Each structure stands twice: as structure tokens, then as C-alpha cells.
From TrEMBL:
Pfam families: AhpC-TSA. GO terms for molecular function: antioxidant activity; oxidoreductase activity. Residues 1-20 form the signal peptide. Keywords: Signal. Residues 38-149 form the Alkyl hydroperoxide reductase subunit C/ Thiol specific antioxidant domain. The keyword Signal applies. PROSITE patterns: PROKAR_LIPOPROTEIN. It comes from the Bacteria. InterPro entries: AhpC/TSA (IPR000866), Thioredoxin-like_sf (IPR036249), Thioredoxin_ResA/DsbE_sf (IPR050553). It comes from Pseudoalteromonas luteoviolacea. The keyword Nucleus does not apply. This is Alkyl hydroperoxide reductase subunit C/ Thiol specific antioxidant domain-containing protein. CDD domains: TlpA_like_family.
């Protein structure tokens, strides 16, 4: 009985601690975002898992850049919400998702599992992610047509997709 209670206590503690998807310090005040409203997005050329390059300077639409991890429950929930939102069919929006510490293979499987139809970019060594934040996924960066940041969101809340607005 005591062993069961200890196990339940440990699992509960771990779930609370890991809810930030990969950080042991889940206090939001520890999260840092290195790009802010009005800044220009630094990575204007991104290559997806199929080898197709996207030049953001030539894409004349608003953009939603998502940093995520395939194993993260918050990322999984966010993609489920995205798939049922009007954003997924918005012709004036380009969605790009960057898998933090993910391989092409893990992203391809994730795309299949979640029926994702937009480009996925592997950031296996965290080279891209580390220029925008210190921890926490999913992270959403809303860009205007000129690749300037409109807003940044940390997607650990239940209905983050409802907060994705360019005005």
C-alpha cells in the first residue's frame, strides 16, 4: 500500500514537473523569448524533411512558425487543435513547424500520425530553436507578410490555437 502511494506520488510529481515538455523548471518566469514584436524572423530560408527549401522572403503571406517536440503532450494537443481550426485551411497563411531535437524520420512519422500537411523542419541540434527561446514547447511565432513578429505564444495552455490572431 505504501509502495503504491509512493509510486502515485512520484508519478503525480513527474507529471506536474514535465508538463512544460522537456524542462524541469516549469515556472513561466524562467522562460525566455529572444524575439519580440516587431523583430524580423532570423531564419528566412528553411528546408523541410523532404528537402524542399522555403524562402520566407518570397512567401507573401502571414506565417505561423511552430517550435515543437513530437513526444510533448502539449505539442500533440496543439496540433490536434490546429487540425480542427480554420487556420489549417486559411489560404492567406503559411504554416511551418520546426521539430526541436527531432530527426527527419521522427518528424515524418509524426506528420503521418497527426495527418499534417504543412512543412516540417528538423532542428536536431537545437540550432534554430536556441536563437528564439531558452525552453518550453510548443512555441508559436506569428509573422506578418514581411516576416516581422506580430506575437509569440507559449502553447502550454489548453486552447492556445484560439489565441493565434494577427490583429
Amino acid at each position: 500500500m505504501i509502495k503504491s502511494l509512493l509510486t502515485i506520488s512520484l508519478i503525480t510529481t513527474l507529471n506536474l514537473t514535465l508538463s512544460a515538455c522537456g524542462t524541469m523548471d516549469t515556472a513561466p518566469q524562467d522562460y525566455e523569448t529572444y524575439i519580440h514584436q516587431g523583430d524580423t524572423f532570423k531564419h528566412l530560408s528553411l528546408t523541410d524533411i523532404h528537402g524542399q527549401t522555403y524562402d520566407l522572403s518570397k512567401i507573401n503571406s502571414k506565417k505561423l512558425v511552430i517550435f515543437f517536440a513530437t513526444w510533448c503532450s502539449d505539442s500533440q494537443r496543439m496540433f490536434n487543435q490546429l487540425n480542427t481550426s480554420s487556420l489549417i485551411t486559411d489560404k492567406t497563411l503559411t504554416i511551418l513547424a520546426i521539430g526541436r531535437e527531432e530527426t527527419n524520420a521522427s518528424l515524418a512519422q509524426f506528420a503521418k500520425n497527426y495527418q499534417l500537411t504543412f512543412p516540417l523542419i528538423s532542428d536536431e541540434q537545437r540550432i534554430i530553436y536556441s536563437q528564439y527561446a531558452n525552453k518550453g514547447v510548443p512555441r508559436l511565432i506569428l509573422l506578418d507578410e514581411h516576416n516581422r513578429v506580430v506575437n509569440t505564444l507559449i502553447g502550454e495552455t489548453d486552447n492556445i490555437i484560439e489565441q493565434v490572431k494577427w490583429n
